[in-house]
Amino acid sequence: MFKDKLTLATPILAFVIMFIFSLTLFPTVNPTPENLPVAIVNEDEGMEVNNQGSINIGETMVENIREAGSSTDDDEAAVKWVEVKNKEKVVEGLDNQEYYAALVIPKDFSEKQASLKTNHPANPEIDIIINQGMNAAASSMANQMLNQMVDQLNQQLRAQIFAELKTADTAVSVSQAEVLAEPIAVNHQNVNAVGENSANGNAPVSLFQPLWIAVMAIATILFIAVNKMTVHSRKENITIKVGQIVIGLFASLIIGFGLPWLAEDLVGMNIPSFMDTALFLSATSFCFFLMILAVLSLLGIKGIAIFALLLFFGAPLLSMAPEMMSSFHQTWIYSWLPIRFLVEGLRELFYFGQSFSWDLISVQFWIGLVSIIVIFLTALKLKPKK
């Protein structure tokens, strides 16, 4: 037994297998954001102050935020601040999934902050807009960081105003005390909300696993069934390949229409548009089926291991924002996952009001087209007769 090379290699194989499957666990252990894009808008018009000229507290805040960001390594900063001209541009960027959140300083911010030292104080306000549908976990983290930043601003502003009032020996009125308890008021707004019965915003990720396993099973069964046949000519082989593709198409339609029906009627998941979702899932399932069948036609049944590994690697990564992954997982694993186009398309359908269109399936289409070409090229090569 000890002379057998495979037996001696068992410890090495055990380590390799452990290492490969550990890569699926590491991304979910204490994920930390890196360069999470958050928009900041300063619409503050400023004000004129006697003996001081024009002041704009909003500009000062933006400058302080910019300096705080530049004081840390840009590659390790948790937030990547993106300055935007106005609120309309921010809303457009949120809908285009450019930002996870936005901080908006309104036009009267300086004026209201100056009023805190008067007998008629008014809370300056800041708008925090959260892009919930982009990624629930990352958006929640961005919301938490923005709230912490506003809390720090409140503490600094409160201490500054009390120090000035104490120096001037000015009594604080009841209305001033109430306002100074929380000087800056925060208006929270969620856009592209995930709503209820959406698995906390992870409904797209919940649907990928049964679809991927079903497509893998169909492609494998058809490949094994055809592989047992004895083919006598290239024409016959091509005909069989056409039959495989046609059966895969019908099976993909069953998956595409059956999966949202099960999710909506049996599980209670919120499916905004059943027809758009069913068509998208059907088209994506068919393209993935072609991809798996093409690889099996090239490599044989051992090729199914590739797609099993994609399932293991994809499951933990697809629920995370790319900015929360390590550079290794983001560059070498997530970027090469074909499953991510399924999840991203479902996010567009569920949370961003998109309908079934070419933009949602363009990548899948090219995957399917290349796969069909590979399938028919493999049909030109006859296997030895048994």
Strand percent estimate: 5-15%
Annotation, overall tally of beta strands: 7
Average pLDDT rating: 86
SSE arrangement, N to C: HHEEEHEHEHEHHEHHHHHHH
Number of helices: 14
Q: Tell me the overall shape.
A: elongated
Low-confidence stretches: none
C-alpha termini separation: 34 Å
Q: Helix/strand/pairing class, anyone?
A: alpha/beta
- Radius of gyration over C-alpha positions, nearest whole angstrom: 29 Å
Helix content bin = 55-70%
Strand order of the largest sheet: 4-1-5-6-7
Q: Could you give a short account of the major beta sheet?
A: 5 strands, mixed
Write the layout of secondary structure elements.
Layout: H1 5-8, H2 10-22, E1 36-42, E2 47-49, E3 53-55, H3 57-70, E4 79-84, H4 87-95, E5 101-105, H5 109-114, E6 125-131, H6 136-167, H7 174-180, E7 185-191, H8 203-227, H9 234-267, H10 274-299, H11 304-318, H12 327-333, H13 339-351, H14 358-379
Can you describe what's shown?
There is one protein chain. The protein is α/β, with parallel strands linked by helices. The protein is built from 14 helices and 7 strands. The strands form 2 sheets. A 5-stranded mixed sheet has the order 4-1-5-6-7, with helices on both faces. Strands 2-3 form a two-stranded antiparallel sheet. The protein is elongated and about 100 Å long. The two termini are 34 Å apart.
